[in-house]
Amino acid sequence: MLHEFIAADPNEDAALSSGAAGQMPAAIRTPSGTVTPPNARTSPEPSSVYDRASSQNAAFRPDRDTSRPRVERYEDPFSPSLTPFKRMTAYDAVRADYTLYVRDPQLRKIVPGEEAQDGDDRFFSDMVVQLEAGEDIRIPTVGPQARLLTVTASPRSDISFWRDGADNWFLRGSSPGRVRLVTELAIDRANFASGYDDTRWADLPQLPPQPQAHRRAYRRVARAIGISRRMRPRKVVDKMVTYFRSFEPSDAPPNAHRDIYLDLALSRKGVCRHRSFAFLVTALNVGIPTRLVHNEAHAWVEVRDKNRWHRIDLGGAALNLADEPRLDRPPHVPPPDQFEWPTGRDSGSDLAHRERQAALANAQNSSDPSDADPAVDPNAPADPNAAPDPNLPPATSQGLPDTTLTIDNIDRDIFRGLPVRISGTARAEGKACVNMRVDVLLLVEGEVERQLGSLATNARGVYDGEVVVPAAIPIGDHELVVATVGNQRCGLGQVR
User: Fold this and answer.
1) What does 93-111 look like in DSSP terms, one character per residue?
2) Cα–Cα distance between 386 and 377 in angstroms, integer?
3) Is residue 114 within 8 Å of residue 186, measured between CB atoms?
4) What is the pLDDT of residue 366?
5) Going by DSSP bridges, is the β-strand pair 431-432/28-30 parallel, antiparallel, or unpaired?
6) Where does 10-159 have alpha helices with state H?
7) What is the distance between the alpha carbons of residues 405 and 218, in angstroms, rounded to a whole number?
8) Which residues pair with 188 in a beta bridge?
9) CA-CA distances (angstroms) from residue 48 to 44, 81, 152, 176, 445?
10) Contact 279/240 with Cβ under 8 angstroms?
11) What is the mean pLDDT of residues 1-5?
């Protein structure tokens, strides 16, 4: 039975609970799991410091090295972890020589104190910034149109936040010095993955004319993709995502046309930065507002419809990351990807999943238990802090024995908009189904399935975790369904 949730009195909450420096909530429940703020009173151990050097990325120049990087360094200050999608640098304009830049570099002040809204994802960040008096130091954020809720700086400093026209964030201090910055951020989950609106061309923000030097090359690429202004923008975006996700890394640099945009776009060669660059040039020429976003390990695009910016990963991720995933932080679980992936996908989510699974395995196999990450419990799920990402490729279960699922425990009272704890088992032919994704769904009015979330089984085949019932679900009696597509040993299964 679903109940109507009555919001608590925020003044009462503030009297009962406090978080970092008394300013932040003691914990927040997100679709990715429950996260707590960093302890601002302890000394941080940053793997990198954001300083003047990190701010000197005023332009991006494309290259022809289309081979896949084997290892990329990466540092993630966010919880839930955004690996590898830390939003560090964005560009929204292209010069005649194909270098990228920010069309409107004017900075506008970001004022803390905004409120989280229904449908938001929330994050904590913990980073160290080397301030220079009066200078703007580039800092990462979580995604387009993010909002700043609360801030703690240690030591206390006279600081302010700023953003430019491409939504790059900067921190400005009145005096030099190193500061630890702990923030709480919010962003509409739809910015991470949602369908591109069926917008008319007239509804999109007007773009300035693109360099005339690009027009002939653009027309050749548009013909190859099969796009034109005669189509609706949504159809153009769909075809472009399909085309640029089909690129493949290559050790042979493309040189056929002596035009780097043509060489990359027509050869379909390249990794994440090449795909994103060629997508950007194409999109701006057809008239779709687009940004290229990158950090030290990955690149992707953001595409605007009449309502919002959408993050779109075009693939081409590195084979590995030179980082140490924080297993005490759950990985961010975005909504399902709205665009199809080709066979042999190489998404940023896949890269992050490989790195985290390797770190979990290393922690669990440690010969000295004191060396293992305290967040890892041998009886915990494969990833103890989060459900599997729905954007990861599903397991193949054809020809495998059916999985028998049980629902052993579930919260008696279920409220819309709040987490529900559920647990049970998964077995096939009497043996535990280990490290297997289990989906929790709600059958609304006996017909419409709504996915509430996903959990993972542990070494004993037990799943145990929380999912969230959307606030939009009507009050009433609905049927809960637990299902799985299986894994390498266990087949399909479902229980109601």
Assistant:
1) EE-TTS-EE-S----EEEP
2) 13
3) yes
4) 57
5) unpaired
6) 10-16
7) 53
8) 120
9) 11, 16, 19, 18, 51
10) yes
11) 44
**pTM metric for this prediction:** 0.73
Residue 197 is which amino acid? Answer: D
CA angle 27–150–126, rounded 5-degree value: 70
When pLDDT is cut at 50, 70 and 90, the band that residue 440 belongs to is confident
Residues 6+ apart with CB under 8 A from 269: 66, 247, 248, 249, 250, 252, 253, 254
Q: Average pLDDT in the 258-268 region? A: 96
- Which segment of 219-233, 334-348, 359-373, 378-392 scores lowest on mean pLDDT? 378-392
Mean pLDDT of 455-467: 82
What is the pairing mode between strands 71-73 and 78-79?
unpaired
Helix, strand, coil abundance in the chain, percent, nearest 5: 20, 30, 50
Tell me: the pLDDT tens digits for 216-256? 999 999 999 999 999 999 999 999 999 999 999 999 999 88
Q: What's the pLDDT score for residue 368?
A: 46
Number of C-beta neighbours around residue 341 at 10 A: 18
Token pair for residue 449? 């399935």
Task: Go through the domains of the chain in sequence order and give each one's CATH number.
Answer: 2-57+105-190 (no CATH), 394-495 (2.60.40.10)
What residue type is assigned to position 487 of the chain? N
Res 44: pLDDT: 62
Contacts of residue 206, Cβ cutoff 8 Å, sequence gap at least 6: none
CA distance 366 to 374: 12
Q: Which two tokens stand for residue 232?
A: 């609706």
Residue 449 CB coordination number (10 Å)? 12
CA distance 105 to 303: 19
The conformation of residue 42, written as its DSSP 8-state character, comes to S
Q: 3-state class of 243 per DSSP? A: helix
**DSSP per position, 443-477:** EETTTEEEEEEEEE-BTTSEEEEEEE--TTSPSS-
**Look-up: residue for tokens 């939504």?**
167
Nearest to 351 by CA among 380, 322, 376, 326: 322
Alpha helix locations (H) across 287-330? none
What is the C-alpha separation between 398 and 408, in angstroms, rounded?
Answer: 27
Rg of the chain (C-alpha set)? 23
DSSP 67: S
